[in-house]
Amino acid sequence: MKTNILSFVLFLGATFGVASQLQAQTIFTSSKPGNWNDAATWTKSGDASAASYPGVPSSSRGKDATNEIIVINTAVVLNQDYTVEGRDGKLTITSAGSLIQDTPGRTLNFGSQTGPDQMRLMTEGPLRVSSLSFYKADADINAPLEVACSITLANQSTLNIDSRVEIDGNLILLQGNPSVTNDTGSLDGSGQLTIDGCVMTQGNGKGLVKDLFDAGLSVCIKGQGTDCGVAGIPNLECNPYAAEYIAKSSCTPLPVQLVSFAARSQGRQVFLNWSTATELNSASFTVERSTDGRSFQAVTKVNAAGNSATPRNYSITDVSAKQGTNYYRLRQTDIDGTVAYSQVAAVEVSAAGAGQEMAVYGTPSLLNVDVQTVGTCSAIRVMDAMGRVLRTEQMPAGQTGNFSRQMPLSQQALGGIYIVQAFTSEGMLSKRVMLRNE
Question: Which residues form the signal peptide (predicted)?
């Protein structure tokens, strides 16, 4: 049994101990929210010749050009691909940090062909990208991980899951007996792995997937194989035997068909609403809140409809939300005790007594903006993660108090980070939000 906090301390201690012995190594620590390729996001130590942000080679480093230690303590937007490699390269996301891609397609690669396999990734905060690949590299996942395309494990790589991992595409296994493990006694009770696609191997023999999953890991393989992540890898196919080696299946029918779940803040309160298309033997919904995206506590319980073939709408108000980022999820419970969880919704809550507030929610194609100000608002502007202006809307003269605006963007707008600004006589309100397509 392993304690996550102890492992995290030992991981960082070993990391920095080795780093101090290597003149050509750089430690990048995020000190403020921002983009990956923005020097202002990072505090740099170690190699004085290093570039101002991770991933820019320095001529003095030779073959260890990206032998970098990265510690993410804030909300960082991954707006480029990156490879963690070199003798001692590592990436750590602490409980105060997160790493979210700005647009679909971002990839993180871990490891290289030289040297033994080693720990390359540890997460205590959320990570969301399109693809992850590990070559002679291990990962310890202690916070929600969402991968839009695929995870590739090769050559003795180990993916240890003590939280929730969702792969919208495939889990791809290459040579060298990779494995997916779980530590009993994790904060979430047990790790959960959901694969919308399939487990893909080069050939479909039983030996390629035998002992792949730990007995304590909850696994669901839905089996809808996709082409995502398979380009350039010969002879890949869905291995039909992977499901036989799952000791703890989580592919149970859900008590409800959840259509939406959203959270928005106003002042120190958070308004949550969700909708279901159908419900079968549903008992209740429990709204849970977390301040780190990993350890959740119940806020309130709402009785479900039981059985319903028509849409149902639910809503509650959390009057005890914490200042800063609050993460919410629904625990859906069936009459027989079956439990399923929704996606996590994140919302920022401002300090009490502030004279101005703004909430942003909706989808990339249609934003909803709620503004509360004691002054007058002249305009609202929407920008993408790179700061490019997508839309500016002028407000009627004398617009003040509480008001809402719907701001349609392009129908082709993609999910990702958006920045919304409201210009008032009391100063500018700015909100950075992650939006998903419906």
Answer: 1-24
pLDDT digits (tens, 9 = 90+) for 185-218: 443 446 889 998 889 998 888 888 988 998 888 8
- Kindly calculate the radius of gyration of the chain based on its CA atoms and give it in whole angstroms: 23
Contacts of 397 (CB under 8 A, 6+ apart): none
Query: What is the spatial distance between Cα 92 and Cα 166, in angstroms, rounded to a whole number?
Result: 19
Q: pTM of the predicted model, to two decimals?
A: 0.58
For 83, 186, 213, 331, 355, the CA distances from 118, given in Å and listed in that order, are 15, 21, 19, 36, 50
| Distance of alpha carbon 87 from alpha carbon 21, whole angstroms | 12
Closest CA to 85 of 105, 107, 101, 63: 63
Structure tokens at 149: 């395309």
Select the CATH number that applies to the domain covering 357-435 from these four: 3.40.50.300, 3.30.1120.10, 2.60.40.1930, 3.30.300.20.
2.60.40.1930
Q: What is the rounded distance in angstroms from the CA atom of residue 81 to the CA atom of residue 3?
A: 31
**pLDDT tens digit sequence for 365-374:** 888 899 888 7
Given a contact cutoff of 8 angstroms between Cβ atoms, the answer to whether 158 and 177 are in contact is no
SS (H, E, C) the chain: CCCHHHHHHHHHHHHHHHHCCCCCCEEEEECCCEECCCHHHEEEEECCCCCCCCCCCCHHHHHHCCCEEEEECCEEEECCCEEECCCCCEEEECCCCEEEECCCCCEEEECCCCCCCEEEEEECCCEEEEEEEEECEEEEECCCEEEEEEEEEECCCEEEECCEEEECCEEEECCCCCEEECCCCCCCCCCEEEECCCEEEECCCHHHCCCCECCCCEEEECCCCCCCCCCCCCCEEECCCHHHHCCEECCCCCCEEEEEEEEEEECCEEEEEEEEEEECCEEEEEEEEECCCCCCEEEEEEECCCCECCCEEEEEEECCCCCEEEEEEEEEEECCCCEEECCCEEEEECCCCCCEEEEEEEECCEEEEEEEEEEEEEEEEEEECCCCEEEEEECCCCCEEEEEEEEECCCCCCCEEEEEEEEECCEEEEEEEEECCC
